[in-house]
């Protein structure tokens, strides 16, 4: 097998990332640090689905993904065409459809507004980050965290994926005074109420395989940690899947299938009846025009 300079077979090389520890962001524009992709990932997390400028377009697109709404829209369009309209060109179907869409828009806008408020509240929370110039820890908002920052946590929710550097255990804790052990509560992530044991890794080249998931620090006086992943690059966001998942209920799925089957059968029956009538009308006309034989 072909191997690299470190003896690792090609194609099996482990992925890694470069973390500039406690970088104040003053690296020259052409330097390797400034070009590192880890520096460009913001710690802002967005769970909302709409913005003020895209609400109408995105909402209407999602609304007419429901085949029932699309069907009534097409019926209203056909009602406008005088040659096929049974209502003399008056789109009566648009009135109930518009009422349904407006009500759905009000509820969707209100729910998304609450998501915006929750996002702002989350990324505005405070944490303490080591300032290299001041040589002390200072309070910053979660949105300002960057990969490589050194943070200190004290019975608080961790703002990003943290690699444990050192732990000061609380008196009487189960860690037995070990400077590298702490307990984390992940109830808000996976629903588990048991505290999980986390340990500071030894300084090896594989130390970043023990990155710390977001959680709440427990049974510990305080902990020093290194920010390894932020924002959309964190484990909790990577495991959440699509950025804007569109949830479809089982009733909507069943309704969509029923409307498609009904509309297909209606078009088939209508086409079959037209072909049937045309066929017998043609035979009748041919019979009338044929000369009689005596």
Automatic annotation (TrEMBL):
<dbReference type="InterPro" id="IPR032631">
    <property type="entry name" value="P-type_ATPase_N"/>
</dbReference>
<dbReference type="GO" id="GO:0012505">
    <property type="term" value="C:endomembrane system"/>
</dbReference>
<dbReference type="GO" id="GO:0140326">
    <property type="term" value="F:ATPase-coupled intramembrane lipid transporter activity"/>
</dbReference>
<keyword id="KW-0813">Transport</keyword>
<dbReference type="InterPro" id="IPR023298">
    <property type="entry name" value="ATPase_P-typ_TM_dom_sf"/>
</dbReference>
<feature type="transmembrane region" description="Helical">
    <location>
        <begin position="50"/>
        <end position="81"/>
    </location>
</feature>
<feature type="domain" description="P-type ATPase N-terminal">
    <location>
        <begin position="39"/>
        <end position="89"/>
    </location>
</feature>
<feature type="transmembrane region" description="Helical">
    <location>
        <begin position="93"/>
        <end position="110"/>
    </location>
</feature>
<dbReference type="GO" id="GO:0005886">
    <property type="term" value="C:plasma membrane"/>
</dbReference>
<dbReference type="InterPro" id="IPR008250">
    <property type="entry name" value="ATPase_P-typ_transduc_dom_A_sf"/>
</dbReference>
<keyword id="KW-1133">Transmembrane helix</keyword>
<dbReference type="GO" id="GO:0045332">
    <property type="term" value="P:phospholipid translocation"/>
</dbReference>
<keyword id="KW-0812">Transmembrane</keyword>
<protein>
    <recommendedName>
        <fullName>P-type ATPase N-terminal domain-containing protein</fullName>
    </recommendedName>
</protein>
<dbReference type="Pfam" id="PF16209">
    <property type="entry name" value="PhoLip_ATPase_N"/>
</dbReference>
<keyword id="KW-0472">Membrane</keyword>
């Amino acid at each position: 097998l072909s191997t690299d300079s470190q003896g690792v077979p090609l194609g099996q090389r482990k992925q890694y990332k470069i973390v500039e520890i406690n970088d104040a962001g003053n690296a020259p524009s052409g330097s390797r640090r400034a070009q590192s992709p880890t520096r460009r990932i913001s710690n802002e997390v967005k769970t909302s689905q709409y913005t003020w400028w895209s609400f109408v377009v995105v909402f209407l697109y999602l609304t007419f993904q429901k085949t029932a709404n699309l069907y009534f829209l097409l019926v209203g369009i056909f009602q406008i065409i005088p040659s096929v309209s049974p209502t003399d060109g008056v789109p009566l179907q648009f009135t109930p459809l518009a009422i349904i869409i407006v009500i759905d828009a009000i509820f969707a806008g209100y729910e998304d507004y609450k998501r915006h408020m929750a996002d702002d509240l989350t990324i505005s929370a405070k944490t303490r980050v080591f300032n290299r110039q001041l040589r002390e820890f200072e309070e910053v908002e979660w949105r300002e965290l960057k990969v490589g920052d050194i943070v200190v946590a004290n019975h608080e929710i961790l703002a990003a994926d943290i690699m444990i550097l050192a732990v000061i255990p609380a008196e009487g804790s189960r860690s037995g005074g070990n400077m590298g052990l702490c307990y984390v509560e992940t109830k808000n992530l996976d629903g588990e109420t048991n505290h999980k044991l986390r340990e500071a890794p030894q300084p090896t080249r594989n130390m970043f395989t023990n990155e710390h998931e977001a959680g709440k620090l427990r049974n510990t006086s305080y902990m020093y940690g290194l920010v390894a992943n932020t924002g959309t690059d964190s484990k909790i966001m990577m495991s959440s899947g699509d950025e804007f998942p569109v949830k479809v209920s089982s009733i909507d799925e069943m309704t969509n299938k029923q409307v498609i089957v009904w509309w297909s059968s209606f078009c088939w029956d209508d086409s079959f009846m037209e072909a049937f009538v045309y066929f017998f009308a043609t035979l009748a006309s041919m019979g009338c025009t044929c000369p009689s034989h005596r």
